[in-house]
Design brief:
Layout: H1 3-46, H2 56-88, H3 94-127, H4 131-142
Helix pairs in contact: 1-2, 1-3
Length: about 140
């Protein structure tokens, strides 16, 4: 195995690790949004005047944004895989597969904390009453 393929596989592993982490992150955000949407809907069906319901105009844009991000990251991952196969015939086996896996794992571990914080914010937006409005006011005050 030559140096060119090792370098390409290492960089593809780093990029793929980030794309996979963001893809899983987006999938979890979609699931959180759907859960919040179903909980709000259930509260509304149970009693329309129940206080503390999360508005649909908060949850639905978050769901759409997460779905779009997820689609983009999965598309980029698939295109990168196709490119690596076409250029280098890389099939994730042997020493090149190990280099790819190590690079992907390192990048995923580096960005895992940021991803976790992003998921906490999505959970709070879709499950905690008035969190979105407080967050919006705070952002407006910082400007």
């Amino acid at each position: 195995m030559n140096l060119d393929i090792n370098v390409a596989v290492f960089f593809w592993g780093a990029i793929a690790g980030y794309l996979m982490l963001r893809g899983v992150d987006s999938l979890l955000a979609i699931l959180f949004s759907l859960h919040g949407l179903l909980m709000s809907r259930w509260k509304w069906l149970k009693n329309r005047a129940t206080p503390g319901q999360i508005a649909y105009d908060i949850i639905l844009p978050q769901l759409f944004r997460s779905a779009m991000f997820g689609a983009v990251f999965v598309f980029l991952l698939a295109e990168g895989d196709k490119l690596m196969w076409g250029e280098y015939r890389f099939d994730y086996n042997g020493q090149a597969g190990l280099v790819w896996a190590v690079a992907a794992a390192i990048v995923a571990l580096v960005f895992a904390r940021k991803s976790w914080r992003r998921l906490v914010v999505v959970w709070k937006l879709t499950h905690e009453f008035d969190y979105a409005n407080k967050r919006k006011r705070t952002v407006m005050l910082r400007k």
